[in-house]
Structures are given as structure tokens and as C-alpha cells.
């Protein structure tokens, strides 16, 4: 597990050039420390303000079994980008639940990119430019060629797994 995590961190670090992974800044607008830019799952789950809700919500979330069966049939080599704020209440609730869905799907962690934004919903070095992020969290599903298939913005219309299934069914 540690070797896999090390390889993942190296790959992420190489992808974002010299950017610092799990970078913490003091957000003047919110007057608190927040994560910014590319993060690892370990980075967000160990960030104190985020962790306090992450662990119990992740443990408690039970994705709908019938929806998950249908979803598993459709998941291939897509990529998912999660744009969230460590300061954001909706992110604190929906990111742990979304990871529970991904874990149940055995979705490859290397196909998930996690980007933290500040209180103004901005990241550094243009890493979210062109994504049209209005609210967080935003979960964006891309096909293997990088074309956006759909997104879940702020909170699901039905459930996270239900909305994800709707995105995948649109693709088929």
C-alpha cells in the first residue's frame, strides 16, 4: 500500500510539474487555512477540518445496491475530476460519499484527480481554467479521450450513484 501510494504521489507530482501537492494556504476571505490545487486522497482525509466529517460520513454512507450493479456494468476507463473546497459544507458531505461510491465500484484511484479551491473557487496556475466551476463540489466525468460526459454540481439531483449512473447511461 505504501509503495502504491508513493508511486501515485510521484505520478501526481510529475503531472503537475513543480506544483506542491496538498498545498495549504491561509484563505483571507474565509480567515482559515485551506488546501489548494492538486491534492491526494490521503492529503484531504488528513486535513483536520475536512477529516472530522470525512471519516464518519464515509463509514455511514451506503450506496444503493441496485444502482451500483447497473453502474458497475458501465464503468470502463473514464476519468473523474473532483473540484472541492476544504472549507465547504457541501464538499465535506458529498466528497466522502462520492469516494464511497468510487470505492464500491473499484474505480482506479489513478483515474481520479482531486483539486482543492479557495473560498473564491480559484486554484493556482490555471489548473481549473476552462472547467467553468461555479459551485463546489463539482464531480466531472471524462471519457478516456478527455471529453466531458457530465457533472454533478454541489449536490446530487437524486443520489451520487444515481446521478453518476445517469451520466454513464447518457454515454452508452
Automatic annotation (TrEMBL):
It comes from the Bacteria. InterPro entries: Thioredoxin-like_sf, Thioredoxin_domain. Residues 7-172 form the Thioredoxin domain. CDD domains: TRX_family (cd02947). Keywords: Signal. It holds the Pfam family Thioredoxin_9. Residues 1-18 form the signal peptide. SUPFAM superfamilies: Thioredoxin-like (SSF52833). The keyword Coiled coil does not apply. The keyword Ribosomal protein does not apply. This is Thioredoxin family protein. It comes from Pedobacter agri. The lineage of its organism: Bacteria, Pseudomonadati, Bacteroidota, Sphingobacteriia, Sphingobacteriales.
